[in-house]
Amino acid sequence: xxxxxxxxxxxxxxxxxxxxxxxxxxxxxxxxxxxxxxxxxxxxxxxxxxxxxxxxxxxxxxxxxxxxxxxxxxxxxxxxxxxxxxxxxxxxxxxxxxxxxxxxxxxxxxxxxxxxxxxxxxxxxxxxxxxxxxxxxxxxxxxxxxxxxxxxxxxxxxxxxxxxxxxxxxxxxxxxxxxxxxxxxxxxxxxxxxxxxxxxxxxxxxxxxxxxxxxxxxxxxxxxxxxxxxxxxxxxxxxxxxxxxxxxxxxxxxxxxxxxxxxxxxxxxxxxxxxx
DNA sequence: AACGATCCCTGTTGGC
DNA sequence: TGCCAACAGGGATCGT
Length: 276
What we know:
The protein has helices at about 5-20, 40-45, 125-130, 145-150, 160-165, 175-185, 195-215, and strands at about 25-30, 55-60, 60-65, 70-75, 80-85, 95-100, 105-110, 115-120, 260-265, 265-270. The two termini are about 25 Å apart. It is about 30% helix and about 20% strand. It is elongated. The protein is built from 7 helices and 10 strands. The strands form 3 sheets. It has a 4-stranded antiparallel beta sheet with strand order 1-6-7-5, with helices on one face. Helix 1 (about 5-20) crosses helix 7 and helix 6 (about 175-185) crosses helix 7. A hairpin with a 3-residue loop joins strand 3 (about 60-65) and strand 4. With about 280 residues, it is α+β, with helices and mostly antiparallel strands. It has 2 domains: about 5-130, MutM-like, N-terminal (N-terminal domain of MutM-like DNA repair proteins), CATH 3.20.190.10; about 145-270, Helicase, Ruva Protein, domain 3, CATH 1.10.8.50. The protein binds a DNA duplex (16 and 16 nucleotides) through loops.
């Protein structure tokens, strides 16, 4: 499922192809995929005729500023995928939004579970939507250990839940949160405020390498809902996971058995032997 | 304010 | 073998 590394892999794949091109039209096949607009047509109207100035990312959001102060925003949800195609290419099932660019080429949003979405926002709307909802990017703008300590101070929620909270840190999802906690040797159910400075430092140090490894291996793929790179390759990071999905298997670090517990309704995998 | 539960959605999985 | 309930999860929303 697309977390920060998968979204960044998508960004890097699309950027050289779509930046500088003008959006000629857009088609919304699943109205639900357009969020924060009164009508799906409002999204279409807002993006049509504008040129893509860049392709950026914040957390799991892809941001494409367009000429005329509108930003095309895309979130992949949990099963979303963006691909480049030529008009006439066979469409994958669940192709829910198609952006037609000059060329002509198409950007297709395929998303079976429709948890993803697109929107087109003004700078004010973007600011309003992100303020209080999306924190600093976990890869490009990682907060210092001191800043993290301030975020965690006094918090009673499990550190796992806080890592998933996009306001604390933007970009982590269930898989990478578990991997980061394993690398940092911290149990997921520990109250955020119970972490001492050394543990917070270890947690912070674990974030970069885990995300970089995910990015290096092309993202994580899970079964048939596999995250697919835009050109169709599957990532091989799944086989390299240390904790996620490995309940009952031996820990690669200490040989202990990986446990599965449910935190905030989400599966959490951790090692009883080396996470404290 | 912080926290936890619930809901949305559909393809896959696992148990009988 | 076949069927169906359970499961997966990011983010919005709501109740406490």
